[in-house]
């Protein structure tokens, strides 16, 4: 007996609030966080976007947010085994991360325009998602984030002299990332030198009174696959999407020189839609330091 003849409502009979709601207007920004971050780091920017009349959806990539696993010694005295314990995220693939972005894009495709925003290492998942489903994306916005059009792995740029010459951030990683299965940091370190190095690398312009809260909201593990998996982009798919790069002018986690190199190499490899470039002052984390300015740059008002 069918659902209709049995008297049980079918999906066609009751399409539900999503399909029956009026069509939304304007642009929706799908926000993809970077390494060790989560959807909640976008909250101030989402409030600023809302004040500008823009909708947004922040994504938690697999293994991040409230689902982020912690090494067993994370909160124990002395953090035993913290630098050597195998990560619960060791087997997570970049395809899985990109799949979470594709699912988020599908959920908001009813908007007239969908802008996919990625920060830092989030550029890997976002770029692969756009390559897999370009019909779901109307604009790519890279906020100091990895662009794999010129070199296929984020690690290829992070090891370039344009990035390593500053020496900044070199002591933040714990243990052997390949053996652990993750690039691990310590958001609960009590070593003042370690905490200061993380602050200078990622958050140097965040007010001192709020830095500790941003720092301690980080997760310890970035899956090894995210910066090390090669991504093959094509002109016919990723390359056809209009794209914008928001440069962070005093960024030490992803230096201005490496940002410019990614832009130049992407435009050379994918010339059909060259980057529109906008700049913000300050650090790698404008969502923490200047969310109103970031929202204006995202919406094109900067």
From TrEMBL:
Ranges where the AB hydrolase-1 domain occurs: 29-297
A UniProt-annotated Pfam family: Abhydrolase_6
InterPro entries assigned: AB_hydrolase_1 (IPR000073), MES/HNL (IPR045889)
One GO molecular-function entry: hydrolase activity
Keywords: Hydrolase
Region (Disordered): 1-22
Name assigned to this protein: Alpha/beta hydrolase
Source species: Streptomyces niphimycinicus
Source lineage: Bacteria, Bacillati, Actinomycetota, Actinomycetes, Kitasatosporales
